[in-house]
Specification:
Helix 2 packs antiparallel against helix 3. Helix content is 71%, strand content 0%. The chain is mainly alpha-helical. It is elongated and about 65 Å long. The protein has one domain. The chain has 5 helices and no strands. This is LXG domain-containing protein. It comes from Agathobacter rectalis.
């Protein structure tokens, strides 16, 4: 969970800003060289902006998926708290 601390303390924000600044400069240079909206390289740079929040959530999600999956599997076997509702039958009864 080290990445959670990195996210909370915003350690990666500067690095992401630098990467986005690089992309902006490359876009500018390509435009100055005559690239237009149909240019493949210009499209790559136009679509490569890194959103700090989304980047962080993707990384945190990778770390949390196995943990949450384990918790869910354990919870489903816990007869005191797990739901025993058969949703498929419930929906079938509504439709019939």
């Amino acid at each position: 969970m080290n990445y959670l601390e990195i996210y909370i303390d915003e350690f990666n924000d500067n690095g992401i800003q630098i990467a986005n600044a690089f992309l902006d400069v490359m876009r500018y240079k390509l435009t100055a060289l005559g690239a237009d909206s149909t240019d493949t390289f210009a499209n790559v740079f136009d679509n490569s902006d890194i959103e700090t929040e989304q980047y962080s959530m993707n990384i945190l999600s990778e770390d949390l998926k196995p943990i949450v999956s384990d918790l869910r599997n354990i919870h489903m076997k816990d007869s005191n708290t797990a739901s025993d509702i058969d949703y498929q039958s419930m929906v079938k009864n509504i439709i019939d």
